[in-house]
């Protein structure tokens, strides 16, 4: 009986959230039109730590200058960021030493941190050089989705990887995503014609997204969690299915790779700024017909996570906004 009441309360809450979401979308869109103010931009600021001058950031529509860009959103990550960056830079430097054609950049997006995250980030810029490590300062906290969007829009890579600042997924797993993207891209490029020229092949021009996934770990997680946490997780998955449709089992893993072409389409359209931007990415991939690959990655829980049960109402709220905004065509999608 208790479980039934919980389910009914959960469903009632969903209905209320979607109704309020519709009202919110209409009000926000009316405000935007009245003030002629499209999706508000948080200014992207890039600083050279040696000159302390602000330098204009590159843009996603510019030609790629690097092979790989790694975008790391950071909010109050003074303690977890150094270890993750050390591991990341060691991997990238070793790979560059073994392959002279390999070029990379790491973009740390400081999402309005109030601790020493900015200092940690700039220490790495000074150590490895501004050509390899860059910091974008958002000034105030906008949310993980906005931080990643900014990093993507101002990156230089043919391939763009988003990864969390806690190092929960080993950076070496990026090769799993990278190899699958290349395999699918070459297959699409050749279209079964072995005479297609390699000189015309550019991985950056073929829209593909690879989602790192922890779905293979779900059975173990279900066995160790409390029943009500499993219920909430299943409920969230159901809402995601209703909002974005099937296709990706684990939308929330913070380890995703995009070709430059895919990032250009997705991150010039994305609107959600916090937890559920991942779900919006799935929705937009389907809208544009961008192939989505889901690839198992190694993952370990790192102490200090900022996700808690109180985040669930906010997640549901964002999903309601997204579902209503797109399905009523109030939110427009740029081609």
Automatic annotation (TrEMBL):
Q: Which CDD domains match?
A: DPG_synthase
Q: In which pathway does it act?
A: Protein modification; protein glycosylation
**Protein's cellular compartments:** Endoplasmic reticulum membrane
What keywords does the record list, in alphabetical order?
A: Endoplasmic reticulum, Glycosyltransferase, Membrane, Signal-anchor, Transferase, Transmembrane, Transmembrane helix
Q: How does it sit in the membrane?
A: Single-pass membrane protein
Q: Name one GO cellular component term.
A: endoplasmic reticulum membrane
Q: Which GO terms describe its biological process?
A: protein N-linked glycosylation
Domain of life of the source: Eukaryota
The main location class comes to endoplasmic reticulum
Q: Where are the transmembrane segments?
A: 6-28
Q: What Gene Ontology terms describe what this protein does at the molecular function level?
A: dolichyl-phosphate beta-glucosyltransferase activity
Report the InterPro entries cross-referenced here.
DPG_synthase, Glyco_trans_2-like, Nucleotide-diphossugar_trans
Record domain Glycosyltransferase 2-like: where: 69-181
Similarity comment: family membership? Belongs to the glycosyltransferase 2 family.
Protein name as it appears in the record: dolichyl-phosphate beta-glucosyltransferase
Record the organism: Hibiscus trionum (Flower of an hour)
Taxonomic lineage: Eukaryota, Viridiplantae, Streptophyta, Embryophyta, Tracheophyta
């Amino acid at each position: 009986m208790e479980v039934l009441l919980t389910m009914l309360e959960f469903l009632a809450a969903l209905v209320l959230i979607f109704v309020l979401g519709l009202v919110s979308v209409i009000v926000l869109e009316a405000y935007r039109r009245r003030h002629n103010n499209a999706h508000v931009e948080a200014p992207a600021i890039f600083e050279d730590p040696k000159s302390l001058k602000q330098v204009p950031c590159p843009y996603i529509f510019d030609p790629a200058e690097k092979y790989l860009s790694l975008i790391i959103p950071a909010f109050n990550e003074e303690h977890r960021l150094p270890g993750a960056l050390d591991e990341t830079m060691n991997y990238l430097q070793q790979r560059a030493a073994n392959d002279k054609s390999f070029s990379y950049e790491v973009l740390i997006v400081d999402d309005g941190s109030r601790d020493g995250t900015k200092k940690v980030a700039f220490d790495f810029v000074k150590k490895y050089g501004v050509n390899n490590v860059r910091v974008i300062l958002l000034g105030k906290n906008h949310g993980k989705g906005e931080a990643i969007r900014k990093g993507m829009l101002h990156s230089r890579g043919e391939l763009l990887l988003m990864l969390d600042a806690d190092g929960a997924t080993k950076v070496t797993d990026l090769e799993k995503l990278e190899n699958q993207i290349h395999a699918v891209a070459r297959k699409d490029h050749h279209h079964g014609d072995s005479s297609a020229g390699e000189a015309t092949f550019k991985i950056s021009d073929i829209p593909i997204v690879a989602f790192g996934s922890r779905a293979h770990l779900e059975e173990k997680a279900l066995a160790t969690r409390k029943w009500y946490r499993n219920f909430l997780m299943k409920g969230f998955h159901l809402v995601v299915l209703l909002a974005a449709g099937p296709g990706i089992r684990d939308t929330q893993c913070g380890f995703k790779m995009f070709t430059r072409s895919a990032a250009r389409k997705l991150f010039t359209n994305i609107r959600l700024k916090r937890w559920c931007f991942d779900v919006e990415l799935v929705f937009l991939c389907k809208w544009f017909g961008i192939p989505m690959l889901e690839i198992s990655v190694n993952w370990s829980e790192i102490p200090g996570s900022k996700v808690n049960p109180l985040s669930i109402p906010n997640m549901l709220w964002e999903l309601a906004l997204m579902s209503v905004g797109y399905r009523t065509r109030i939110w427009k999608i740029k081609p």
